[in-house]
Every structure is written in C-alpha cells, then in structure tokens.
Design a protein that fits this description.
Layout: E1 12-16, E2 21-33, E3 36-42, E4 58-63, E5 69-74, E6 78-80, E7 85-91, H1 97-104, E8 110-114, E9 118-122, E10 128-133, H2 138-146, E11 153-160, E12 174-181, H3 191-197, E13 206-213, H4 214-226, E14 234-240, H5 245-249
Parallel strand pairs: 10-11, 10-13, 11-12, 13-14
Antiparallel strand pairs: 1-9, 2-3, 2-8, 3-7, 4-5, 4-8, 6-7
The protein binds flavin-adenine dinucleotide.
Length: 251
C-alpha cells in the first residue's frame, strides 16, 4: 500500500432526522443470493423518511426468543420516496433474531423500524473509494457504488461465502470489484482481507471505508494506519461482534 498524502480531508456533513418509529408492511421478499434476503417495505408511515448517507442505518425491531423485542442495525439499501419503497438486505448468517425474522417473514407481515437518527454525508474531494467489508457491509457498499457520480472510482473488497453470493452494481462511476471467498463460519477471520491488501496501491484522494466484524475492522484499520494512511481519509465500523454461538445461547 502506498499513496500520496493528501492535505485537505473531505468534509463530513452530519444531518439529524426526526426520531420516529414506523410500522410498515413487507411488500416483497426474495433471496437475492443464497445468503442474502431482500425485503421491500411499504407503508403510509414512510412519509418523512429520510436517508441521505450510503452508510446510514435504521433500527429493525424484531421479536426475540423470549417473546420480547430486540433492535438490530440495518442499512436502508434503497429508498424511493416516489414509489414509497424502502429496500433492506439482511444476511442469513444462521441463528439470530434479525436473521430468523428475515427468513420467516412473509409479504403482508408488519415490519417495524426506527430511525435513521442521522446521516453522515462524506463530501467532495474523494476521487477513489476503497470499500472493504463482509456481507453485512454489502448493502452500504452497494449503495455507495450505485450512488457514485460520473468520474469517481470505487474498488470494493468484500468477503462472501462463494461466487453465487457476489452482487453486481450499476453505477455512473467506475467500479472494480475484488471478492474474497470464505465460508460464513470464518467470517471472524481477517487473514484473507490482510492478504488481499498486500501490494495494493491507492491513488491520491482515496477514502478507505471499512465495515466488518468488529475485531477484523480494527485490524484492517490498524494496517492502513501503519502504512501511513491519513485517518481523516478513513471510516471504520464494527458491524457485528463474533460471539461463541453456544455461549450466546446458554441460559
Ligand atoms: C451501521 C450498521 C449497518 C448494518 N447493516 C446491515 C445490513 O444492511 N444487513 C445485515 O444483514 N446486517 C447489517 N448490519 C449487521 C447486523 O446488525 C448484525 O449482523 C446483527 O448482529 C444481526 O443480528 P441477528 O439478530 O441476526 O444476530 P445476533 O443476535 O446479533 O447474533 C447471533 C449470533 O450470530 C453471530 N453473527 C451475527 N452477525 C453475524 C455475521 N454477519 N456473520 C456471522 N455470524 C454473525 C453473532 O456473533 C452471534 O453469535 C449492520 C450493522 C451496523 C452496525
């Protein structure tokens, strides 16, 4: 990894949205890829919904095993105010309230969401995005690529179980996808990401966006910092935390 240092960081505009819970209806459900479930949500309560940042998140409110409810962070993959459609993609990673709900929900069922509470829009100056993540980051990465203006480039480095879980994005910019294949059982291992970064050369004004399992995201970030990447040109998020499933399920 080498790059030319860039003096002026891109501005980040933070926009607050009115806090509100909404009850919507699942209008459609499809297996986008073997491990990704796409839900289209509709409803009058979408009035006033706003999501301005590609990596915004809303709270999906789903039942838990004890009859209560839990909230999980999910990216608004696409919002079409005119059509009144909100699309979300949920990874079927196995057992968890959000994954279980997405597997079982049917068209006509209610879907409850809160937020987004705000959007962080990374402004001009970025000419190349390096978007690194796992399946849970794909909705934000896909949205970012689809929203690229002409003349802006993106490279994505995304881990999925296999070629059938890859996704294709249309964009006015240019996009170079790099896919890592590993089973979901290895989703908390960083080796393949770090190996894929070896020898990677970043053009000036590259923004590095990282979202994956929390420890992996931290490791990748540390690697960029070690290589001298300016932290003002980087955003890192832990999108989930690996827990021992047996321990998590124990009483
Ligand atoms: C800002 C933000 C945006 C996000 N956007 C999306 C999105 O658009 N779509 C999406 O699917 N997820 C997204 N996530 C990640 C999602 O919130 C987590 O994966 C969440 O833990 C899933 O909840 P659950 O109820 O299915 O499982 P949990 O009850 O949280 O976890 C149950 C078990 O599954 C394991 N687990 C959880 N996630 C994964 C995984 N990805 N791979 C392997 N094992 C896992 C846990 O370690 C635990 O052992 C986002 C997270 C953040 C912070």
């Amino acid at each position: 990894m080498q790059e030319t240092s860039v003096p002026t960081p891109p501005p980040v505009e933070r926009i607050r949205h009115a806090q509100r819970r909404r009850t919507l209806t699942v209008a459609a459900r499809e297996r986008l890829t073997p491990h990704m479930i796409r839900l289209t949500l509709k409803g009058l309560e979408l009035h006033g919904f706003a999501s301005l940042g590609a990596d915004d998140h809303l709270k999906l409110i789903v039942p838990d095993a004890d009859g209560g409810e839990v909230q999980r962070d999910i990216t608004p993959r696409r919002f079409d105010a005119e059509a009144g459609d909100l699309v979300i993609d949920i990874l079927d990673h196995g057992a968890g309230p959000a994954a279980d709900w997405a597997r079982s929900v049917q068209p006509g069922d209610p879907a409850r969401i809160g937020g987004p509470r705000g959007s962080a829009v990374i402004g001009g100056g970025v000419v190349h995005w390096l978007l690194i993540g796992d399946e849970t980051a794909l909705p934000a990465i896909g949205r970012r690529i689809e929203e690229l203006p002409a003349g802006i480039h993106a490279t994505s480095l995304v881990a999925v179980p296999g070629p059938e879980d890859e996704q294709l994005f249309r964009t006015r910019g240019t996009h170079r996808p790099v896919w890592i294949h590993r089973p979901l059982s290895q989703a908390a291992r960083s080796e393949r990401f770090l190996a894929a970064l070896d020898g990677l050369k970043l053009p000036a004004r590259s923004f590095v966006w990282i979202a994956a399992e929390a420890a992996i995201a931290r490791e990748i970030r540390a690697r960029f910092l070690l290589e001298g990447h300016d932290p003002a040109w980087m955003k890192t998020s832990g999108y989930w935390t690996a827990r021992d499933r047996d321990a998590a399920e124990a009483p």
